[in-house]
Design goal:
about 325 residues, Quinone Oxidoreductase, Chain A, domain 1, Rossmann fold, six-stranded parallel sheet, binds NADP nicotinamide-adenine-dinucleotide phosphate
């Protein structure tokens, strides 16, 4: 099969598009014929070696932990998934990923993909969708009627967080640069803040939850917009407990975990027309390097997705 691997950590030049052995599903695993693989910032962060102390990968490593495809074969003990099921997943990031024509994934990390969308759009959902879900609803305990400030609202995670928060019945404030204003208002943002011309802490009334997908000074300036007892949830850098306490608020850091049950909920929302995947660009698997270079610029609207051919090289 074709796959995109790294043999060493480094810049985009370490990505190698090559022939690789087709994996075999072990007990409890499914072999998925990949139709599309989503790009996420964690892909190039891992490529650059930023997470090597945490994830202990063995190289060579296939990158990419967002997939939509079709179950090709199943390993022993697999009960829930069947050959030809159309599925999507955010698999375990410590294992080989999905920039490949085939990938093996634990059955417990796989769900049926939304029926109403194609594989390219389904591959844009798992990692960012689970991140938004676990941050807003698990760490943040967001409920209807609350106010939430979402930093990076136009990004892969942000676009899904905005829609999930709206579907929950929250009042949503989103930050992005001015060219995303009309897009985000249409997506459901109640108040838009252009971070290039306004300071959000000067224009946003107190909120129950800040969802930080940006970090740095954006996180530092976020404490004062929280109501007493509110919570800042970051997916970028661990907020400081002492700083949170000094503001009378709470903090949490989320590192997204695979979760098939939550993926099934996400699929239901998509099929009910309450959640849509925003895909800005589709590239072939062989262009993974260009896809990562684009992602690394930090201004993707929604997602970049790799479309993956079948094992004969034909388009999926
Ligand atoms: N902890 C975890 O498990 C986890 C999971 C997923 C993602 N993450 C991390 O979370 C971050 C976001 O991920 P992502 O996939 O959403 O990234 P992304 O799609 O690359 O985000 C791009 C978006 O960020 C916006 N942006 C850039 N600077 C901004 C600023 N100062 N204020 C507001 N918006 C700004 C851009 O909007 P404009 O073009 O308008 O500037 C763009 O739409 C990444 O660092 C990623 O590694 C962590």
């Amino acid at each position: 099969m074709k796959a995109v691997c790294i043999y060493s950590y480094g810049g985009p030049g370490v990505l190698v598009y090559e022939d690789a052995p087709r994996p075999h599903p072990g007990p409890g695993e499914v072999l998925i014929r990949v139709h599309a693989a989503g790009i996420n910032p964690v892909d190039w962060k891992i490529r650059e070696g930023h997470l090597k102390e945490m994830l202990h990968h063995t190289l060579p490593l296939v990158l990419g932990w967002d997939v939509s495809g079709v179950v090709e074969t199943v390993g022993s003990g697999v009960l829930r998934m069947h050959v030809n099921d159309e599925v999507f997943s955010r698999p375990d990031v410590t294992r080989d990923g999905c920039y490949a024509e085939f990938v093996t994934i634990r059955e417990s990390e796989v769900a049926l993909k939304p029926k109403s969308i194609d594989h390219v759009h389904a591959a844009a959902l798992p990692l960012a969708g689970l991140t938004a879900w676990q941050s807003l609803f698990e760490a943040g305990s967001l409920v209807a009627g609350q106010r939430v400030l979402i930093h990076g609202a136009a990004g892969g995670v942000g676009t899904l967080a905005v829609q999930l928060a709206k579907a929950k019945g929250a009042h949503v404030i989103g930050t992005a640069s001015g060219h995303n204003r009309a897009f985000l208002r249409e997506l459901g943002v109640d108040q838009f803040v252009d971070y290039t011309t306004e300071r959000f802490e000067e224009v946003v009334e107190p909120v129950d939850l800040v969802f930080d997908t940006i970090g740095g000074e954006t996180q530092d300036r976020s404490w004062i917009v929280l109501k007493p007892g509110g919570i800042l949830v970051s997916i970028v850098s661990q907020p400081t407990v002492e700083v949170a306490e000094s503001h009378g608020v709470r903090q949490a850091f989320v590192f997204t975990q695979p979760n098939a049950a939550q993926l099934a909920e996400i699929a239901k929302l998509v099929d009910a027309g309450k959640l849509r995947a925003i895909v800005e660009k589709v590239l072939p698997l062989a262009e993974a390097r260009q896809a990562q270079e684009l992602s690394e610029k930090g201004h993707t609207r929604g997602k970049i997705v790799l479309k993956v051919g079948d094992s004969t090289g034909k388009p999926a």
